[in-house]
Amino acid sequence: LLGSMSSHATRLRLKLPAICCLLQLVTIILFAVFIRYDQETSARLWHEELTRHNKSNRDNEFYFRYPSFQDVHTMIFIGFGFLMTFLKRYGFGSVAFNFLIAAFAFHFQSHLLNRFGHSFFGCLLSWASFMINADFCSGAVLISFGAVLGKTSPVQLLLMALFEVTLFGINEYILLSLIGAKDAGGSMTIHTFGAYFGLMVSRVLYRPQLDKSKQREGSVYHSDLFAMIGTIYLWLFWPSFNSAITAHGDDQLRTVMNTYFSLAASTLATFAISALVNEEGKLDMVHIQNAALAGGVVVGTSAEMMLTPFGAMIAGCLAGLVSTLGFRFLTPILDSRLKIQDTCGVHNLHGMLSLPHTECLILALLWAVTGSYKTGPQGMMADVFPLIADGSRTATYQGACQFFALLITLGVAVVGGSLVGAGLKIRALGAPPDTQCFEDQLYWEVPENHHDGYLPAANPEDPERSA
Amino acid sequence: LLGSMSSHATRLRLKLPAICCLLQLVTIILFAVFIRYDQETSARLWHEELTRHNKSNRDNEFYFRYPSFQDVHTMIFIGFGFLMTFLKRYGFGSVAFNFLIAAFAFHFQSHLLNRFGHSFFGCLLSWASFMINADFCSGAVLISFGAVLGKTSPVQLLLMALFEVTLFGINEYILLSLIGAKDAGGSMTIHTFGAYFGLMVSRVLYRPQLDKSKQREGSVYHSDLFAMIGTIYLWLFWPSFNSAITAHGDDQLRTVMNTYFSLAASTLATFAISALVNEEGKLDMVHIQNAALAGGVVVGTSAEMMLTPFGAMIAGCLAGLVSTLGFRFLTPILDSRLKIQDTCGVHNLHGMLSLPHTECLILALLWAVTGSYKTGPQGMMADVFPLIADGSRTATYQGACQFFALLITLGVAVVGGSLVGAGLKIRALGAPPDTQCFEDQLYWEVPENHHDGYLPAANPEDPERSA
Amino acid sequence: LLGSMSSHATRLRLKLPAICCLLQLVTIILFAVFIRYDQETSARLWHEELTRHNKSNRDNEFYFRYPSFQDVHTMIFIGFGFLMTFLKRYGFGSVAFNFLIAAFAFHFQSHLLNRFGHSFFGCLLSWASFMINADFCSGAVLISFGAVLGKTSPVQLLLMALFEVTLFGINEYILLSLIGAKDAGGSMTIHTFGAYFGLMVSRVLYRPQLDKSKQREGSVYHSDLFAMIGTIYLWLFWPSFNSAITAHGDDQLRTVMNTYFSLAASTLATFAISALVNEEGKLDMVHIQNAALAGGVVVGTSAEMMLTPFGAMIAGCLAGLVSTLGFRFLTPILDSRLKIQDTCGVHNLHGMLSLPHTECLILALLWAVTGSYKTGPQGMMADVFPLIADGSRTATYQGACQFFALLITLGVAVVGGSLVGAGLKIRALGAPPDTQCFEDQLYWEVPENHHDGYLPAANPEDPERSA
Question: Which residues does B284 contact at the CB level (< 8 Å), separation at least 6?
């Protein structure tokens, strides 16, 4: 039955190989032309570095970034991948399309990011600005994936990733290089951008008849446990995410500590509000799986600063509160009023916290300048706000820049998402029909009797039981 | 049916939010009043440190503790969390209540631990003594959680965590600061304390009618696989647990190596004994999930010393043997004779090994002093036993102190657990009735047809199948 | 029914304990006689090292190897363990026998590896050459396990591990010490050796009647998701695997980067080919779970070199292509023509890539010598090819050595695997009958109603539902 419903339009036998090969070929050519090993990676350059600066092999940046990087890598592929397996019939698509588009974004983006702000030819492949940014960029794409989960073909997803990665690079260049905004944990460049981009794609691809797939939109017992694998890994490694590219030394340690405290506080807040908004006082797995992470998002930009542990906890509490309320009250409104079908509720976790985290940053900034940085040597301020430290900016001006950067990000995400969404409407890209959303059988060989919710009552052809 | 059984007593709509908010508020206030960034975390102090001691940013303690810490963090939230999902209908509660109380204990404890032995105001937030101890303290609470799993409400669990964390801090202060005992891997402070505290709580909360929930106390096929995720992560990262706060250099490496060998040996022993004690020679998942970890527990205190690889293996073998026998023969006796209902069998893994690991330590100590440390310079002994190295103690006296520390720990755990258990009997705390233990539906929104063991035979309203 | 079928031959009540105890005893004795802590681990030797070389505790090798090592450790126990849980009724055996034989191989091998090339008595237990090699050796055994998965008893598996570990040590000694071949990522010593050893064991143990267990050879929906946990972890940490024992500095960073790019490319290629070879254009989980990893295997030996990022991508693409085609077309032929029943298809991932990775290495080698290393100082070449750097070998000669090393490895694996397979035919070792392959109930206490595919239609004795 389903086999026959997998009509011409959704067959990917040629489309998917074609797009994969094309994207891979383009990436290989771009790398061959533009990218070279940098001085930490190239045998010749590193040995020159060793001699010139009297370094030892153990001073290589590798040893000071690799563990954090692997944590972030785990978040992208295990964290996001399993978080989305909560859907009862879309586990294969969740974890494996996540794998596909993250792997693509991971090695494609690198090129673009380095195009801007650096020389064009002979661009160097540096560890921090390249590999870690590659995962950050994948993160933004996966947030958007959360909004359109179950309603798109892998061909659409790869195209979305292609354009989103490009816009991510442009937006990041504007924010960090032109405006001089701070965004170590990617609150704006990753969360705000990824969420609103994905929401706009979802808006443009609005499906009035999505109710026909409603019976598959929920979870089953074990799919919720798989999703918890994703949640816990995201929660565990968020401190590494926020600190992966901050300055070495106290900055990195402080970012990690602040993020821990914020996450712990948002977890308690989420349990509290989840019970409170349920008529029977029962907890909801959707809230725990998502809103408990809000503490990591909200301090993304500010965790680097002298936020103080209790400041981080207050931020985390508020984030957990706002995010859980969003899942309970805002998601239905987005769907019915604004026609935005947000499968994973990315708006509540990644989008809605844009304003709080910006305010959080601005407060931290004022606090920083008037407070704890003031009496110390110049160097410690220069790590965080080089432009304030060298006197070319006031703290107020920096605060205004941060707010302006948020507006730019929203603009790029909304316009970009709308255009890309419009492009993805092309029928040949293999989108599922409204009756077949959230369904693995459309794109996957699925084992028969495949899971709980759809298990046949009797199974007479079972060779074991008839024996 | 179940909805209506979730009567007034077990409704958490106001209770859970109230306790979460209260605990969070107290924590925030304590942090605001007492806790400051230390010299590795504060921008000003670290930059003074840099200047004064001619350090570089890469000398920050962060780079030498963070990877181990993240391993321990993974053990607490993934390891313990998934280990307990073996119950067929309590997977949500296992992983998510684990998440809740660990997140609470993680940021609450830090305060208390630093109250003792340090100045009261302006206490510094240091990485090793604070963050890693925070996870250790969570570990003790989670061991106790294992004893009462499925028989307590989240409100009870948070209260238990609150008091256990406090007593943990007091006990640790007595052991490490007053008695001068060694306990790098927390054999006494974490395992012995957590186990006997939880067992006493379980004893006081004894349910004579627990048989009415017997049908839910077992596992289903996939819940045992989820539990194996927890087991393997605990097993993998136990070397990081035991070495997280040992001295830098050879100590940390030696602790890691000894723990590996002990764990590998306890794994073989567990498989051997599990087959031997079963009438048909079949292996039992409960043994593999738990007793294979005994090798990590047993060398918790002694792994730091010159235990030698073969010594570590012998300790691991014996631990696996004792622990598996405990699961097979002792747990039923504890239940029927001593009225201790130990859901996860924490006595067999964490409690019963108290005496062996203390003996193991004392032997290692004598060996150390008479053996391998003797001929070396003073420094290497001072890392492990500063009081012996500076001549203020003999090895025998240190051994007696270790044994005395064990008795103290047992005392604090038993008395503390009894009192806290008595407090948790208050009906308003929402404990499940005897007929509804090990059941997620009491506190959770559970998807219909939710899992294997309770799947309805036929499912006529299924829109897919009726189509 | 099944209980009674678990006849005398497959009962392990005495056999499994006997073999476990024997192997453990031998290991303990070997360690007691031969193994001592090395200068990084021993308190005395390390403190002498500190004094003599003016080192600090933070220069201990531990800090520069431990994070990579833990990644590799995770691959062995979580990665391989869960990858094999795809079988619907063999999840316990997959993850737990993986655990057993890896734990055994992990601590047994260490001895052997150090027998060759070092002094016999007082052999030192060094971190890099011992612990990391221990995991590498386990990896080879687990690859062989993949070929015989579900068709062997744990007693057979332990014996296979015993002999394979021994031969692994001999082969590695020949390759690295006698021939002077390079194999940092273990392409030959681990992948080629493990795969062909396992395939030969499977060939010798050929079961003409395996069709009788055919209904259990597939997956169910959730077992495929468990397998994806394994896949993603293998994919994530493969860069650590390939770089775990390369030289410090640029070598290690370059290995990591090249492996990332190769893996990302093989993922895209796998999705492309998986859709292309399916008549309906549907993706196959078997391909994604396995072939996406081919990029890590193929650059195992060459990732250390100046492969360039685009070179790594091309290698990864080809590996994903070849591996996916192997799963689709070669595995059935191996079974029907060559009578090799390869449960996990290890030939496609680990075996078949032997020739490509050797060619890849030889090309990289020529490129290296004629290209990027040439103009630099001697030191940077010496890290990778000491024998070429000091002039005792030409690049061509080294290339010939690599090819010769591959032939040796194939020889040792094929001859060794055949002999060991013949030994494993002994009936007393408890192999499952042809009708009971891929079945946990033979060796495990399995909970009733245990999983999807075998759930009874109605469940009248369920106390909950009859209430």
Answer: B274, B278, B327, C444, C445
Over residues A30-77, the pLDDT tens digits come to 888 877 788 888 888 888 888 888 888 888 888 888 898 999 999 999
Q: Are residues A21 and A86 in the same domain?
A: no
Report the alpha-carbon distance of residue B85 to residue B226 in Å, rounded: 6
* Minimal CA separation from A41 to chain C, in Å: 5
| Contact residues, chain A, for B135 at CB < 8 Å | none
- For C317, half-sphere exposure in the C-beta direction (CA atoms, 13 angstrom radius) is 18
Q: How far is the C-alpha of A31 from the C-alpha of A453, rounded, in Å?
A: 46
Per-residue model confidence (pLDDT) at position B388: 73
The token pair that represents B364 in the structure block:
């290692």
Is pLDDT larger for residue B121 or for residue B125?
B125
Cβ-based contacts of B67 with chain C (< 8 Å): 66-67, 70
- Residues A50, A76, single domain; the answer is no
Query: How many domains, chain B?
Result: 1
β-bridge mates for residue C123, sequence order: C35
Q: What is the enclosing helix (H) or strand (E) of B33? A: helix B15-34
pLDDT band at C117 (very low <50, low <70, confident <90, very high): very low
Contact B106 A373 (CB under 8 A): no
Does the residue B114 lie in any domain?
yes
- Residue type at A365? L
With bands split at pLDDT 50, 70 and 90, how would you rate the model's confidence at C211?
very high
Contact indicator for B413, B51 with CB cutoff of 8 Å: no
Instruction: With respect to residue B269, please indicate whether it lies within any of the assigned structural domains.
Output: yes
Residue B14, in any domain of the structure: no
d(CA C254, CA B385): 42
Instruction: Name the least confident of A276-290, B197-211, B241-255.
Output: B241-255
Taking the Cβ of residue B460 and every Cβ of chain C, the question of whether any pair is shorter than 8 Å is answered with no
- The pLDDT, as a whole number, for residue B10 is 81
In angstroms, rounded to a whole number, what is the distance separating the alpha carbons of residues B178 and B199?
26
Q: Which of C82, C237, C88, A293 is nearest to B226 (CA)?
A: C82
Q: How high is the ipTM of this complex? A: 0.91
Q: Are residues A204 and A291 in the same domain?
A: yes
Q: Which of B90, B212, B225, B304 to mutate to test the interface with C (most CBs of C within 10 A)?
A: B225
**CA distances for C173 relative to B415, C353, C425, angstroms:** 59, 22, 29
Neighbours of chain C (3+ CB pairs under 8 A): A, B
The pLDDT value recorded for residue C402 is 85
**Closest approach of C122 to chain A, Cα-based (Å):** 29
Average pLDDT, whole number, for chain C?
A: 85
CB A218, CB A88: distance < 8 Å = yes
Instruction: Return phi, psi of residue A278, to 5°.
Output: -95, 135
Instruction: Identify which of A64, A267, A377 has the shortest CB distance to residue B63.
Output: A64
A68 touches chain C (CB under 8 A): no
**Domain span at residue B341?**
66-120+127-445
- What does the alpha-carbon distance between residue A109 and residue A170 come to, in Å, rounded to a whole number? 11
Beta bridge partners of C267: none
Substitution target in A224, A302, A324, A388 with the highest count of B β-carbons within 10 Å is A224
Q: pLDDT of A380-437, one tens digit each?
A: 566 677 777 777 787 778 888 888 999 999 999 999 999 999 999 998 999 999 999 9
pLDDT at position B311: 87
* % of chain C with per-residue pLDDT over 70: 84
* Size of chain A in residues: 467
> Measured between beta carbons, which residues in chain A are less than 8 angstroms from residue C261?
31, 107
Please check whether residues A82 and A184 belong to one and the same domain.
yes
For a pLDDT cut of 70, what percent of chain B falls above it?
84
Q: Do both A405 and A436 map to the same domain?
A: yes
CATH code, domain carrying A282: 1.10.3430.10
Residue A464 maps to a domain? no
